[in-house]
Specification:
- This protein is of the alpha/beta class.
- The chain has two domains: 2-120 and 304-358, 3-Layer(aba) Sandwich (Rossmann fold); 130-302, Rossmann fold (3-Layer(aba) Sandwich), CATH 3.40.50.
- It is 35% helix and 17% strand.
- The strands form two sheets. An eight-stranded mixed β-sheet has the order 3-2-1-4-5-6-14-15, with helices on both faces. It has a seven-stranded mixed β-sheet with strand order 9-8-7-10-11-13-12, with helices on both faces.
- The chain is elongated, with a radius of gyration of 22 Å.
- It binds nicotinamide-adenine-dinucleotide (NAD).
- Nicotinamide-adenine-dinucleotide (NAD) binds next to helix 6, helix 7 and strand 8.
Amino acid sequence: MRIGVPKEIKNNENRVALTPGGVITLLKNGHTVYVETTAGINSGFTDDDYIQAGAQILATAKEVFDTADMIMKVKEPIAQEYGLIRPDQLVFTYFHFASDETLTRAMIDSKAVCLAYETVEINNTLPLLIPMSEVAGRMSIQEGAKYLEKPKGGKGILLGGVPGVKPANVLVLGGGVVGTQAALMAAGLGAHVTIMDISLPRLRYLSEIMPANVDTVMSSQYNIEQMLPHTDLVIGAVLIPGAKAPHLITRYMLKLMQPGSVLVDVAIDQGGCFETSKPTTHATPVYQVDGIQHYCVANIPGAVPFTSTLALTNATLPYAVKLANLGWEKACEQYPDLEKGLNIVKGKVVCQAVAETFGL
Ligand SMILES: NC(=O)c1ccc[n+]([C@@H]2O[C@H](COP(=O)([O-])OP(=O)(O)OC[C@H]3O[C@@H](n4cnc5c(N)ncnc54)[C@H](O)[C@@H]3O)[C@@H](O)[C@H]2O)c1
């Protein structure tokens, strides 16, 4: 199969869908790989790296789309890419159709086969979303620590404290993938960490695996209000699949916190779990409400493409190999996890949630 990797052109997107290592794997399986020039540069891979791996470099996105049977991308196609996609072409990327009707209708019109990373599902988990949650969870502490610093508008406290001085208190709301990684990072830096979740089995599991400076507490409004006066950094990491995130910290609750404390709302891509959250970008990541710092970047992994590209492609490559070896129809027949990724096939919406969202 001919596999094409265009350069990502969405604002501030620095990842690439395939590494030179991935090129070697696909070539070993008998395929040809075409990469748009400089596609990997912001993730640390030069055109020469791809050439040495055996890929062919093409000068424009149009040439890549014209040549390939399967397109591998990171983000959903944006308007200037719509017209490049060919009927029957397989496009394997994040689509997030439910949040974008224009994209959905453009992909229906393209008659392409759209296989979405975010709906590939195995054993009730989303294997192509987990790596980005891991990155975002770890980053949330790095960013939270930074915005706790006085020159950055924070109260001016070091997460780990020093000998003779107490560490900062970190509250993690939601003990899933993001919350677990956030808690581990904060604990590793020496902070005192509390994880809240509404799932008792999850809290049981976390209390077994977490280090001694991490407590687990059942999530409730009462318990959150009790914690806020002593909390320096809150990480919002809740998810109710398919629903808007609940507002666990409302505006009046900000008054319970000390000025310069920091809220990092990782769940902002689902609407945010603090009432005062609104999406921000890496260019202007924070703003203050009632003296409390809010960090609400919707694509946190975009800031660390060297890490995020590898984390993403570690997860996507095995699926790409199956698709290339078998073709999408046989691969989806054999692997139900991949079949769940099918969202639009040759003009027809085949994902129930997307169809319901737009009445299609
Ligand atoms: N901003 C970004 O760049 C970025 C990147 C990756 C993921 N995310 C988002 O982060 C959020 C968390 O993702 P995840 O992969 O950790 O999800 P997950 O499903 O692994 O974990 C969510 C956890 O929240 C818990 N929860 C639900 N309601 C709760 C409540 N009221 N109080 C406390 N806990 C509650 C669930 O029991 C679960 O353990 C999602 O919205 C995801 O889209 C954002």
